[in-house]
Amino acid sequence: MSTDGWKNFGRYGANLDPSNVHGKIALGRALEDALERMIVEGGIKSPVTTRRGLMARMKYLTTHRGGLRALAEAGITATSHTLRKWTGGKQTPKPANREAIDTAYWNLRAHNVMANPHAFQQHLNRGGQGTKIEIHPINQDAVPPPRRRDNLRVRRFQVRYIWDDAVEAMVAGDVDKLEELWDDVIAELDSDWGAYTYVSHIGLGA
Q: What pLDDT sits at residue 1?
């Protein structure tokens, strides 16, 4: 099966809406969004402006590899003595330094999560249950009414087994592999698959 099921995409203006893209592109974006949510939702909840939030960030930055480099890249020039005071809650950094500490923390957490794609794969696989996918069809506002497909609707279903390969393809930037995987996803729609070769949005329940 080729995912060029809509061979004449754009002939009647559907390509004029920038939100309408091939499913492989939308799938890659959905994976990136889900990864960002995983990074944020699994991170420190207390704001850096609180003593607890500051100390938690400093502990993470001073006990994880690359933490001191992340602080330096964020603009922190404090001595090790000062860093220990911040970590122990004995001294409060200035607002600009707190903001830099927050930036360093999130940059390092994102780096560490992305360096371990297996955790993201497990997050999507959910012990074999898979992840719910929500497919939004193309926006047809730019298509003349006589040429519109009136049978398009949002489709929702559970997807299993593709997530290991999908994460690897996202990390590698392998668009061809994402297209192959999108082929597998829309095959679940039987004869309707071609209408979802191009979509406006894909959401993942993860």
A: 33
